[in-house]
Amino acid sequence: MNFPKELSYSESHEWVQKLPDGTVRVGLTDFAQSELGDLVFVNLPEAGDSMEIGDSFCDVESVKAVSDVYSPLSGTVSAVNEELLDAPQLINESPYEAWLVAVEDVSEFGELMDAAAYEVFCAQGH
Amino acid sequence: MKLIFERSVPGRSSALLPACDVPECPMPEDFARRQALHLPEVAEIDLSRHYTELAGQVFGVNDGFYPLGSCTMKYNPAVNEEIAALPGFTGVHPLQPIHTVQGCLEALVTAEKLLCQVTGMDVMTFQPAAGAHGEFTGLLLIKAYHKSRGDTGRTRIIVPDSAHGTNPASAAMCGFSVVNVPSGPDGCVDLDALRAAVGPDTAGLMLTNPNTVGLFDKNILEITKIVHDAGGLNYYDGANLNAVMEVARPGDMGFDVVHLNLHKTFSTPHGGGGPGSGAVGAKDILAPFLPRFHAAASAEGYVFEDAPQSIGSVKEFYGNFLVILRALCYMRTLGEAGMREASQMAVLNSNYMRVRIAPHCRIATDGVCMHEFVMTLSELKKETGVTAKDVAKAMLDEGMHPPTMYFPLIVEEALMVEPTETESKETLDAACDAIIAILERAKTDPAAVRSTPHNTPIGRPDEVAAARSPKLRCEFS
């Protein structure tokens, strides 16, 4: 299981990457994709949508189930990763490159963990 | 197996038509097809074998044990079929004069009366063709009710996280936004979370009781009161009614509208043998909004009534009549006492299996369950790598249909078992023996379980490829 040091992590298994230009990318962690199994569909929000901490902003579908993805921050969607619409398997193949949304005007972050804390969190079976 | 088109040979046919004894009249050029029709050309014997082979590829409740949780795959009594095949019921047309179909209307009115007694509702529509269709219809009634009162700010439907997936989907289809309420550790609704979720924007709550972990929510009266006090209405998802027929009624629990799956609880065919029926019952406050074609008695005999502020039709005419008739036959055959005993036996059978399996696998809830229970295989997965799906596949090899997998979502590696009341103790014991043997084999020889099934027409289909790039058309060369 991969836990890149430069990212932050939420308890609902999203990763958060702060880019130099002030925007923030959000994706699903390696742990999340392995628990979900092979993804077959991703339903993304639209640029301009607002995101609120703890609200579902996207859903992903595996052969097992459809799962909500919860926002680790509050802000406005500036771009979505449209590549995923045709190739949801990218999330399984390289979860930390397959960002879901880019967010601007971030007003607040939810409670986030660093890589070490998140690794422990996952090991505890959350 | 071959597609019927792959059995086709040009010029071969199943019918011997008499010689044409009228002048031939060509199709007007405007309407004539430019391309030949793609119809299979086969002899009757090939056609017959094709369907027999198809039948061999499927598994129904007549083939073996079918404990598919939340689906109530009970046996469909033959007497239902006998009644539904009577020519007075089959040889009718929706548009024939109403005085010539009084018996059919009486059957609808009687079925409504009996189902209202079972649910504690005042009126019922039979238009919806299945459960989710019933949810959609019931929510439209709730929407129409609020709108008729000028109460337009009620835009949110509350759904617990253990709900059937159709609940939030139906709410979204009706234009509501969905508020998820978490379950407590006992699998029941978290009352504090519910209190925090309701407000002036609450249109209603959707709930199934017993819930999806097989527990009767002990706080049900408090739950429905919280929603009523906030001005919302309560919707009962009738998927699990088989646990409580003639024992407890949604109407008495505080629900205002309910859908029934006649193809679950009331023994009409379910699955490929359908069609289904998602009858919707409602309290009087919702009666003015019922869909059209509501059969009722009048001074001139039985008639179809249209409710004054009807939401319109959700299906043509009065729904799947012959299905409703089968349900009526079931209720008339069993009577009140028989339906109560059916529910009691459904609960007993479920608990019998739960107690036999519990020493070998953790059960998601403690204590007595209702008509179904949920096994959680997360420990087995950690220890052996064998998943709920692998165990389900291994059950196929034992000649039984697997339980519902990976549902409810609040239980990890879930297998949801609903034996129903129509199975004998011998069948339950054989199923328990087989499941326990699979769980034990998973510990000693996990690879063997992971390689199943071996005795089925196909092994493990590639579900990912099927979902990502489905092949839905037969391409003709």
TrEMBL record, chain A:
Keyword set, alphabetical order: Lipoyl
Subunit structure: The glycine cleavage system is composed of four proteins: P, T, L and H.
GO-annotated cellular components: cytosol; glycine cleavage complex
Signal peptide region: none
Lineage: Bacteria, Bacillati, Bacillota, Clostridia, Eubacteriales
Protein origin, superkingdom: Bacteria
N6-lipoyllysine modifications at: 64
Domain named Lipoyl-binding: residues: 23-104
Species: Lawsonibacter faecis
UniProt keyword Acetylation, yes or no: no
Family: Belongs to the GcvH family.
Stated name of the protein: Glycine cleavage system H protein
Gene for this chain: gcvH
Co-factor remark: Binds 1 lipoyl cofactor covalently.
One GO biological process term: glycine decarboxylation via glycine cleavage system
Function: The glycine cleavage system catalyzes the degradation of glycine. The H protein shuttles the methylamine group of glycine from the P protein to the T protein.
NCBIfam families recorded: gcvH, PRK01202.1
Necessary cofactors: (R)-lipoate
Automatic annotation (TrEMBL), chain B:
Alphabetized InterPro entries for the sequence: GDC-P_C (IPR049316), GDC-P_N (IPR049315), GDC_P (IPR020581), PyrdxlP-dep_Trfase (IPR015424), PyrdxlP-dep_Trfase_major (IPR015421), PyrdxlP-dep_Trfase_small (IPR015422)
CC terms in the record's Gene Ontology section: cytosol; glycine cleavage complex
Domain Glycine cleavage system P-protein N-terminal: 42-284
Enzyme class: oxidoreductase
Cofactor: pyridoxal 5'-phosphate
Region (Disordered): 447-466
Pfam families reported in the protein's UniProt record: GcvP2_C, GDC-P
Keyword annotations of the record: Oxidoreductase, Pyridoxal phosphate
Gene Ontology molecular-function annotations: glycine binding; glycine dehydrogenase (decarboxylating) activity; pyridoxal phosphate binding
SUPFAM superfamilies on file: PLP-dependent transferases
Catalytic activity: N(6)-[(R)-lipoyl]-L-lysyl-[glycine-cleavage complex H protein] + glycine + H(+) = N(6)-[(R)-S(8)-aminomethyldihydrolipoyl]-L-lysyl-[glycine-cleavage complex H protein] + CO2
GO biological process: glycine decarboxylation via glycine cleavage system
Enzyme Commission code: 1.4.4.2
Residue ranges annotated for the Glycine dehydrogenase C-terminal domain, each copy included: 342-442
Summary of the function given for this chain in its UniProt record: The glycine cleavage system catalyzes the degradation of glycine. The P protein binds the alpha-amino group of glycine through its pyridoxal phosphate cofactor; CO(2) is released and the remaining methylamine moiety is then transferred to the lipoamide cofactor of the H protein.
Name of the molecule in the record: glycine dehydrogenase (aminomethyl-transferring)
Species of origin: Lawsonibacter faecis
